[in-house]
Amino acid sequence: MTVGQQRAWDRSWASFGCDVTELGDGPIDFDAWFGRTAPVVLEIGSGMGETTAELASISPEINHVAVEVYAAGLGQLVMRAEKLELENLRLVRGDAVDLLRAHIAPNSLHGVRVFYPDPWPKKRHHKRRLIQPGFVRLVASRIEPGGTLHLATDWEDYAEQMLEVCEAEPLLRNQHADQQGGWAPRPVWRPLTKFESRAEREGRVSRDVIFERV
Description:
It is a single chain. This protein is of the alpha/beta class. The protein has a domain at about 105-214: Rossmann fold (3-Layer(aba) Sandwich). Helices cover about 35% and strands about 20% of the residues. It is built from eight helices and eight strands. It has helices at about 5-15, 30-35, 50-60, 70-85, 95-105, 135-140, 155-165, 195-200, and strands spanning about 15-20, 40-45, 65-70, 90-95, 110-115, 145-155, 170-175, 205-214. The longest helix has 14 residues, at about 5-15. It is globular and about 45 Å long. The termini are far apart. The model has no long low-confidence stretch (mean pLDDT about 95).
């Protein structure tokens, strides 16, 4: 962590977050954790938190939960949350699969977002990609009927893999199946990050995939 990230962590981590290994047995009581009842959206892999903080800021009616493995990214997100005085954001450090399996009840999430996961571009590493049938099946089971799974990537072959995997999952329905290729239009509310801007400069087109839990 940078000095600033560490200071923010020391000040506010206990208020915003916890490690997945520190969670008690069974599903998280989100109402108790947030101190209110509201729809819960889970972001998997929040990175440095730029998108996470902005979306939490513009959607105060939603309880936002971000899970990330890297402490530096979470430290940066804590800094952003402090600056924006966010009360509707909670953070979890650890593996998203462990969180989903052991600590999130079936049919309990309003939505799940996975924006720009590691593309593992070399073909021999594709098996390491997060978006695989087993993972999507687990995620879908945790989303309430009518809720959404929203994926985005700037790697063409990964976008195609995302679309193929989600279309093969019986619990999900493509909200934009009538669009050319089945791609979702880029939502105006999804922040344009430095990462995405760089991808565009390098000639990579971002794709959004949005499926609804049936």
